[in-house]
Amino acid sequence: MQSEHTSDRTLLSDRVQRQVMTADGHDGQSHAERESPVGKPVIRGDPALTGQRAEEAVEFDPDDPESLELAARTVRAFSENTAGADDNVYMLRGAAACAALVRGEGSYKAAAERAGGDATVSFIRKWSRVHDLPNSIRRHVAMGQIAPTAAKHIARVGGEARLSLAWAILDHDMTVRQVRSVASDVNNGQSVARALETEGIRLGELSLELDPEVYRELRRRAAIDGRSPGEVVSELLDGRLE
């Protein structure tokens, strides 16, 4: 016969699992790198995210001369008019064009020369990196929950720090200035947790709304175990969101 502790844990685990969405399935094994092809409108082509018809999303193929020419024109126009910063889909399209042009031309310098105008190496590098962010982050950019200017700074850091910084933005309404500061600190050798602490933000802290029955069970289990609800949830979810 199972103990109360074991059966309660199984019950809560099953219920919490039903309440939490799984990973998006598009990110790589580390979840921190883009897996879909360069220039493919995975996010821009999803009308549920952008509100546009899927066929309106432009795909830039770095191996197709005509598509590469379109990417070059798009990058030039994008570099000369970023007034559309309020249009996140516009910004993601410009980032996609930058990434495709770099891939097609073979270097940032060659891409900048091909685009011309105000398209500098620095500009193209920054926006190409935004396009290389994992889908889970770019989804929030497309929905307007992460500003493209903040996404540029997320893209400056590597690995899992990207995800930690992106989720902190969502959970703590970070300003672009704060995001820039954290990214700089991480690139200077600080852990993302310590860099966030400098801004008064605790990594891993968020507010959740639970089904009342799950909430009561979670609180009861935490009381029995003598632990915080966060510790119980972390243990139950560990390994289940991979």
Q: Can you walk through the features of this model?
A:
The chain has 13 helices and no strands. It has 242 residues and is mainly α. Helix 1 (4-19) packs antiparallel against helix 12 (212-225), helix 3 (65-80) crosses helix 4 and helix 8 (148-154) runs parallel beside helix 10. The two termini are 31 Å apart. Mean pLDDT is 81; it is low at 1-29.
Descriptive key words:
disordered N terminus; 13 helices; single chain; 242 residues
Alpha-carbon Rg, integer: 21 Å
Summed over residues and divided by their number, the pLDDT gives a mean of 81
Query: Can you tell me the overall shape?
Result: elongated
**Beta fraction:** under 5%
Order of helices and strands: HHHHHHHHHHHHH
Please, how many helices?
13
